[in-house]
Structure formats: C-alpha cells, structure tokens
Design brief:
mainly beta, 2 helices, elongated
Length: 182
C-alpha cells in the first residue's frame, strides 16, 4: 500500500544520503511512496560532526523534496565548517553531488523513528601535509517528534598520506546529529 510520508522523514532520507551515495530502495529497506507532501526545499544543520580525530564546528545540507516516489529528495549541497584534526585545519568534502534519495518508512517498533542505513559513504579530507579518503556505511535513527537525525558508523581509510595520523585501512568512527527543517 502506498501512503504519504511526513516531510521531515523525507528530509532525513535526503540528509542521510548527503553523507553517502544514493541508497537503492532494496538496500535501505524502503517503502514505496506515491505522494510526498509538501514538495520543496529542505535544510539540515549539525554542530557535532566528527570523523575519527577530525572534528568540525558545523555541517549543513540542503536540497529538494520531490512530490512523487520512489525518489523522495536530492542532496544538492553538503558542507563542513572549520574542521580540525590534531590542531591542523583540514577540509572535509563529500563528492558526487547531487545525490538522489529514495523515501524510507517508519521503524516497525516506533512509527516516530525512521531507521536508516547509508551504504557507500565517501568523503575526502585535505589539509597541509595530509590527505585521505574514507568510505563505508553510516546508520542512524531519525526522530520525527524532534526532527533530529543521529548518524554514526565506522569508515575505512584509503589513499592516506597524513603524517601518520591515519593510514590506509584504519577504521575511523564518524558521527553527527542533524536538526532537519523544510
């Protein structure tokens, strides 16, 4: 049965994809969605984005919500502000924007929580004498009563040239909590 999805749930799907590649409906356990209301722009903000030793003062995502599924949204922008690692300024960049995002349904145990899995997360870090890529999956619940998305997961480092701070095949924990509006 197709049914409307509350807009913040769709927004969280877009934000989750902002930290990873497009998630296929089968991979994400998604539900088919016929109508999403209302369509239009969304934004999301975090004050606690981290990637291993790297911390950012803030992160912002934005994009567009569509009025039909199964693609519910796209992520047109994902930015990170004032990121540091061991006292060094670094840039954290997501690549391949915009991403298309399918809609997901509520968890079976709590209709106010949308559990999501984000496979294919990929970021690039660049700083003075330091660069590396990290990829993997993020997981997290979105609480539609607070419009908060809490993401975390372990990513694997590759292409590391970073003063020994991180090396190829290191596992780095990533986390962020986003407040979603739209």
């Amino acid at each position: 049965m197709k049914r409307p999805v509350r807009r913040p749930a769709v927004v969280v799907t877009a934000l989750v994809a902002a930290l990873g590649s497009a998630v296929s409906p089968a991979a994400a356990g998604t539900a088919s969605v016929e109508t999403l209301t209302p369509p239009g722009p969304y934004s999301a903000h975090s004050y606690d984005a981290t990637l291993g030793l790297l911390t950012c003062d803030s992160s912002d995502a934005s994009g567009w919500l569509y009025d039909t599924g199964p693609v519910a949204a796209d992520v047109a922008l994902l930015s990170f502000t004032h990121c540091t690692m061991s006292g060094m300024n670094v840039a954290l960049t997501a690549t391949g924007l915009p991403w298309q995002v399918p809609a997901v349904g509520p968890s079976s145990s709590n209709p106010n929580v949308y559990n999501v899995t984000v496979p294919g997360v990929a970021v690039h870090v660049e700083g003075f004498g330091c660069s590396f890529d990290a990829g993997g999956s993020l997981f997290g619940p979105f609480d539609s009563t607070t419009d908060e998305l809490a993401l975390d997961g372990d990513l694997i480092v590759s292409e590391a040239a970073c003063l020994g701070l991180v090396n190829d095949d290191d596992v780095v924990h990533s986390s962020a909590t986003y407040h979603v509006t739209g």
